[in-house]
């Protein structure tokens, strides 16, 4: 909206076309009074109260009689030109006739002049010109307004288009960054080298089938990480499969220190989720609840579907978090990344929260729309 | 041929199996203990006094570095660090001539580290293995926290502060009253001050600290070790004349034969 600081009239009023119409009407018609006074009354030396009063009365009449013209034009506005022109002409003729009759009779009664009807032609001519001007002026103002509107609309559309493009570029950049971060994060060096060491161990102690299994799990997991575009969604079932690959590898490394539990009901399995969205959550659970605890612990993934929202909980039996530190301090990049990705997909329609469980441990809850 | 008595430490069972398998193939190595965590490593090392220890860095609870800080200088064995990946560690180890091997384990690399250990044992007179280790650890923590290493002295302290020690740790300056000190361990240019279960590394000399400490309370029990006698809970005599002091926090410190008189007066 234009800055209302420079206009004494409040913006809403200023821009209201109704108000504009009436203001112009009053200014126009009483402006006419003034002109009439200056050119006719003074010239013809008709300065009596009646004469002056009449100029005002005829303007008032003009205001009233021209009023229906507005509706007439609105009615025919979108019709073919021929209809508009002929209706306008008809309006002009009609109004000038009525106005002429009325102003002559009021003139005669207010000033006492006789035989004014003889000059009807002259008065009619004058009226005709006045209404012709009125119509012309009306259309002038109206078209000017329309032009301004169009102009504004074009500017706004251009700016909107620019904003959209900027958003798209930003989204692409974020996605690319996320993919890079994701790759780096997924190909966690500790995870990779420790896993290779474990495979080497299995080969050494001649448990070759286990070694083979682990090699397959690792390659499947790496393939999933590398192939998946973070902008894409996969079914929850696929996501859980990938996470399971990862967790199985970790289980081979940690032995009895890692216990796993899954609870994914059938109705949740086909719901789409952003790919690799659970990975950072599970890695955190491993880091804080399993790797750092001498006795190890349990990681559970539980899904549920309620009222068009899918809830996925990653629960560990670790030490939980110190709520005073908040998300960033205690779990770092992984959770921030997850939050960013969810915002990209779902704007504000998602939930990501951490809660310490009463019986000990941490629950990371993800809640997203199921469509 | 002298065998190197070795302890291996790793929290992952498979990693331990692999290291065991590789070392079993090397003639002059004898594995005397296997540990799953830092605490076990400290206990086993103090009790068995191996010549060599293969120490995993990433372990739950006490990690490899914590183990080094907790081991008394005077009984510190030669250490080979084992790491999967640590961006700052490898450079620091190279800088301070500390030996390390990377995961996945390479038999040749491990064989080479054994050769080095044998050499060092022959040439090293005073067995001061802890000093380069602490140097490397400090280097790593410095790089990790991007903090300037500062030389903290208390020469200009007001009288009220004189009975306290200033320690800088990850950008925070800590004040440790002398009374909180459990035991102190000198390693070359560094000192490990153990107070209330935490270990602080400062750059200072033992002589300097000794002069400030109350000699009635703080007793030297080994070449590089001072202990606060108030923290001693029990004593275990060892063969060859030395003994083992057990402290309130659970540590066990070796008293050398030469210093046993110093503690005798406490146990009259």
Name given to the CATH architecture of the largest domain in chain A: 2-Layer Sandwich
- CA distance, first residue to last residue of chain A: 38 Å
Number of helical elements of chain A:
12
Strand order of the largest sheet of chain A: 2-4-5-7-6
Please describe the biggest sheet of chain A, giving its number of strands, its sense, and whether it closes into a barrel: 5 strands, mixed
Structural class of chain A: alpha+beta
User: Structural class, judged by helices and strands of chain B?
Assistant: alpha/beta
**Proportion of beta-strand residues of chain B:** 25-35%
Q: SSE order of chain B, as H and E?
A: EHEHEHEHEHHEEEEEHEEEEEH
Q: Spell out the CATH superfamily of the largest domain in chain B.
A: Response regulator
Largest binding interface between chains: A-B, 22 and 20 residues
Here the CATH topology of the largest domain in chain A equals Heat Shock Protein 90
The structural domain count of chain B equals: 2
User: How many DSSP-defined strands of chain B?
Assistant: 15
What's the number of helices of chain B?
A: 8
CATH topology of the largest domain in chain B: Rossmann fold
Rg over C-alpha atoms of chain A, rounded to the nearest angstrom: 41 Å
Question: Could you tell me the radius of gyration of chain B in angstroms?
Answer: 19 Å
The helix/strand series of chain A, from N terminus to C terminus, equals HHHHHHHEHEHEHEEHHEE
CATH superfamily of the largest domain in chain A: Histidine kinase-like ATPase, C-terminal domain
> Shape of chain A from CA axes?
rod-shaped
What attributes characterize this protein structure?
heterodimer; A: 371 residues; alpha+beta; Heat Shock Protein 90; 2 domains; five-stranded mixed sheet; two-stranded antiparallel sheet; 12 helices; disordered N terminus; B: 268 residues; alpha/beta; Rossmann fold; OB fold (Dihydrolipoamide Acetyltransferase, E2P); five-stranded parallel sheet; five-stranded antiparallel sheet; 31% strand; globular
